[in-house]
Amino acid sequence: MRVDCEDCAGCCIDWRPVSPVTLDHERRGPRAPLDDTYNLVPLTRDEVREFVDAGLGDVLTPRLWEAAPGEGVEIDDIEVAAIHGKPAFFVGMRKPPKPVSPFGIERTWLRSCVFLDPDTLQCRIHESDLYPAECSEYPGHNLVLDKETECERVERIHGGDRLLDDTPPENHQGLLLGPHALGAKLFVHPEPERLDGVVERLRTRSLTEADRAEFVGVAVGSHPGSTEVDDERARDARERTLEADSWAGDAFETWVEAATVLGEDAVDAPDPADVEVARGAPETPGWDAIRQEN
């Protein structure tokens, strides 16, 4: 498996506003996400805990799904996918609007991973201990499952060669599907009644810090292979998430305030170095350095 990521970041950004065709691969079937985040990266329980330990709990957000009538649990007049009557969810990374130039287009406001450097389109936590396994192995899982990759979507719509070798990797860490995912990547909230109002705020992109911290806490307190949650661990993670004041969380709010309309020109956007690096964001090496290494 080999990919060319330079000037792309298609898997890290929501490029639907600049796509001439509809991109809806996440919204097919009976269990579509309740949120409208594109390509949310699901984190494992241990990864969520590591983000909280690093003071980055404020960049995490949940994903829940719709369910067919009678097949889930009703919250805010919405049928939510559930396991044993309790809401199921992922935890991923938030995507603020950023001024980016993927695929050779002009700098444009698009939702992008909170850790994406808008200038280089490289990940600020790449090769760090926090870099998620799902990101490091992408698009390996798609290739194993014989599903279209974001690389191929970019090729189909914008041309070029992105997926240079489509041989599935032999040493991937595992897909964590089915029962193996429970409590390890797929979490279950133990008290649906505590989510009154939260599901509606999720759908309208108006989750509060307390809403997000609630799910982060449950994820950290979960037991692999079980729906049980350790209340003490969950409470501690929830409190530390609420206390988080990271460079990424702070930059998120600045980008939201500066952004205009998604898909529109971002020529007047603030300098990413002023918004992110000045707040403590790790710098990225740029593509010249990557080419020299290779």
Automatic annotation (TrEMBL):
It comes from the Archaea. Pfam families: DUF7531. InterPro entries: DUF7531. This is YkgJ family cysteine cluster protein.
